[in-house]
Design goal:
CATH topology of chain B: Cytochrome-c3 Hydrogenase, chain B
Number of domains of chain A: 1
CATH superfamily of chain B: Cytochrome-c3 Hydrogenase, chain B
Strand content of chain B: 5-15%
Order of helices and strands of chain B: EEEHHHHHEEHHHHHHEEEHHHH
CATH architecture of chain B: Orthogonal Bundle
Radius of gyration of chain B: 21 Å
Structural class of chain B: alpha+beta
Number of strands of chain A: 0
Number of helices of chain B: 15
Number of helices of chain A: 13
Distance between the termini of chain A: 40 Å
Strand content of chain A: under 5%
Largest sheet of chain A: none
Number of strands of chain B: 8
Oligomer: heterodimer
Helix content of chain B: 40-55%
Helix content of chain A: 55-70%
Chain lengths: 319, 364
């Protein structure tokens, strides 16, 4: 009974649910503001993403006649539910150690692609040729960025597991870092950290990898036909996905708390997420443009995956 | 157009974020590869040629200035030249210099706009913002000298409307001094940035033979090795007295067109400076009423996008019997079918933008 209550709290309030939504919208707001300042624009207020959601919710839901209405409406719900559940298993150093038995890298490998799959479903269901293009682009890119992700996960697991085999639970990975220092500072793991930093813009489709939703090319692809509350749900999904990806990266490479107080640790955690956001998403997309799909794919195959594999190889040799 | 089972239709336009103006491309796509392109136009036809035949010669100066905003000086200038050719008016020397200055100021702003949009299309919005900020120097120059940021209202039949006195000339020179280092920097960025090169080199290829076959004009022709510039081929105004170099390239891809535009912008800055140095004193327009005798005349100039031709026929009344113009985009857009064959969907906006299409000119 306690377990169920604990899980419900984790999914609905903290660290998933309300907390993840609020943090996601804040991160989106900071991203937009900082991006604008880098371009010498004033930029929108920090709460603009939240205001956008409210505005969209007041609009009518439009479903194209030729679309598959069920799948069209289901896709955003599926995506948001998926990321909220993923957010619930994210541990926060010194604040929350995750739902017992849930924080596992293998589970994450299944949960993380859900938003991308929701986008594919949306693109396919919308019956627009741009949606289909977005679908195929999303799928291609997903194959590309999942490779380095899996390799980085394995590298971390082997490094943490040491002689005993590999550690797949986030709990174990964090405990290891509390003892031995963050993996961010571990020279063996440096290539994998870089690969993970490239995975973040890849999965968030920003900067070089803004391919599936490229506005001038495929008119936002799968999102083209979405409007009103359904688009708001997709925006929320994207915000929570950003939180999830950044929190995962923090848990994997620098989860160490700063002090004894929960509040201080939570603020420290948010600060780390923000720093990671500014480095791997905001500055990255301000300094680059968009690659073509084939170029984006080969970027991950040529540069990112080998980086993660180098760490994995070193970790295996040194254990 | 027949659709084979492996291809599907990708409708680009008439409303599409990558197009600033309405135009419809029926594109047959196989996966991400373009198999064939069909163009359809006519969404912004405003009947301006018919309108021109219902207005007198002076009203038509205002009308032609409103054909398009980016080459809004080329149209009235060419129209005025056609009227002056027919009526045998001699435009004062000072006015000729003023017309060249107005033309080149507009050319710099137009070219910067186009290369800026290119950066936006490859998703490099920071560069887009930077180029537009640099273009703002030229917009301020226009506002300071002519009072307007887009339509200068500089040309009148037989001369110019706004004089550039010593103070204004100093202001314009100051703006050019600000612009020059920025233009150099932007050229360097476009030339060397790995992302810009990866996205724009080798796409939208137009060989010299194809360029000649389609009769393309302007920067599109010059980037494909066809050195055709009306300012040098059939010099008008004071271009024969000016020292400038016609820019050309032989690669004929999207990247070379953008670089060529930036080099032309730098050349335009030199031309404006020469004009400010050499401009003689004197009247800026002929005085008295202008009468247009019956007859025909033609005038052509080099607009930012290429050659603009105006044909005028008069029956001696105060309205033209026929006024017809041919704009560069009309010559260039058919070549899109060559440039876009076999390209990727991601390249479509870049290739379309590389001819700097002006739909409102073409459909008027």
């Amino acid at each position: 009974m306690t377990n169920i209550l604990e899980a419900a709290f984790a999914i609905l309030i903290f660290p998933g649910g309300l907390f993840a939504l609020a943090l996601g919208l804040l991160l989106k707001g900071v991203d937009r503001k900082f991006y604008a300042r880098l371009q010498r624009r004033v930029g929108p207020p920090l709460i603009q993403p939240a205001l956008d959601i409210i505005k969209l919710c007041t609009k009518e839901t439009m479903i194209p006649d030729s679309a598959n209405a069920t799948a069209f409406q289901l896709a955003p719900m599926l995506g948001l539910t998926g990321v909220l559940v993923t957010a619930a298993v994210m541990p926060i150093g010194g604040v929350w150690s995750g739902v017992t038995g849930l924080g596992d890298l293998l589970i994450l490998l299944y949960l993380l692609p859900i938003p991308a799959m929701a986008m594919m479903l949306a693109g396919g269901a919308s019956s627009s040729p741009y949606g289909s293009l977005g679908f195929s682009r999303e799928m291609c890119l997903m194959f590309a960025y999942e490779m380095p992700l899996i390799a980085s996960f394995l590298a971390v697991a082997v490094r943490v597991g040491g002689a005993d085999g590999s550690a797949l639970s986030l709990d174990a990975i964090m405990s290891y870092q509390y003892l031995h220092g963050p993996l961010l500072l571990d020279p063996v793991m440096l290539p994998a950290v870089l690969a993970l930093l490239m995975f973040i813009p890849g999965t968030m489709a920003s900067g070089l990898f803004d391919i599936p939703e490229a506005e001038p090319e495929v008119l936002e692809g799968p999102l083209l036909e979405y409007s009103g509350p359904l688009l708001a749900v997709f925006n929320l999904m994207s915000a929570v996905k950003l939180t999830v990806v950044l929190q995962l990266a923090v848990a994997l490479i620098c989860p160490n708390p700063i002090g004894g107080s929960v509040v201080v640790n939570l603020a420290w955690h948010v600060f780390k997420c923000l720093t990671l956001l500014l480095v791997s998403v905001t500055c990255f997309r301000a300094a680059t443009g968009r690659l073509r799909l084939d170029q984006g794919f080969s970027f991950f195959v040529k540069y990112t995956s080998p980086l993660a594999l180098v760490s994995l190889g070193l970790a295996v040799m040194l254990r | 157009m027949s659709t084979t089972p492996s291809t599907y239709t990708l409708p680009v336009g008439p409303m599409h974020v990558a197009l600033e103006e309405p135009m419809y491309f029926n594109i047959q796509v196989e996966g991400e590869t373009v198999r064939s392109v069909d163009l359809a136009a006519g969404h912004v036809h405003r009947g301006m040629e018919a309108l021109a035949m219902n207005r007198n010669y002076f009203q038509n100066v205002t009308l032609t200035e409103r054909v398009c905003s980016l080459c809004s000086n080329s149209h009235p200038a060419t129209y005025c030249m056609a009227v002056e050719n027919l009526s045998g008016l001699f435009v004062p020397e000072r006015a000729r210099y003023l017309r060249v200055i107005a033309d080149e100021v507009k050319r710099v702003a137009s070219h910067l706009f186009n290369v800026g949009i290119m950066a936006h299309l490859v998703g490099f919005d920071s560069l887009f913002m930077h180029v537009m900020e640099v273009r703002e120097i030229m917009q301020d120059a226009k506002e300071g000298v002519y009072g307007n940021r887009m339509n200068l209202g500089q040309c009148v039949i037989g001369g110019c409307r706004t004089d550039i006195d010593a103070d204004t000339a100093a202001f314009l020179r100051g703006q050019l001094e600000q612009l020059k280092p920025q233009l150099d920097e932007i050229h360097g960025v476009y030339e060397r940035d790995p992302l810009i090169r990866a996205r724009t080199q080798g796409i939208g290829l137009l060989s010299q033979e194809e360029a000649i076959r389609h009769g393309v004009v302007g920067p599109v022709a010059r980037a494909s090795g066809v050195v055709y510039d009306i300012r040098a081929k059939a010099p008008y105004a004071v271009y024969p007295d000016l020292d400038f170099e016609v820019q050309s390239d032989t690669r004929g891809d999207v990247h070379s067109r953008a670089l060529l535009r930036l080099r032309e912008a730098a050349e335009s800055v030199r031309i404006i400076e020469q004009c400010l140095d050499m401009i003689p004193d004197g009247p800026i327009a002929v005085s008295g009423m202008v009468t247009v005798p019956p007859g025909e005349s033609v005038a052509r100039t080099e607009a930012p996008r290429g050659e603009v031709v105006y044909y005028l026929r008069s029956d001696g009344s105060d309205t033209p019997q026929r006024l017809k113009w041919r704009v560069p985009t009309y010559m260039n857009w058919e070549a899109l079918q060559v440039m876009m064959s076999g390209c990727q969907v991601a390249d479509i906006p870049l290739i379309v933008n590389s001819i700097d299409p002006c739909i409102s000119c073409t459909e008027r």
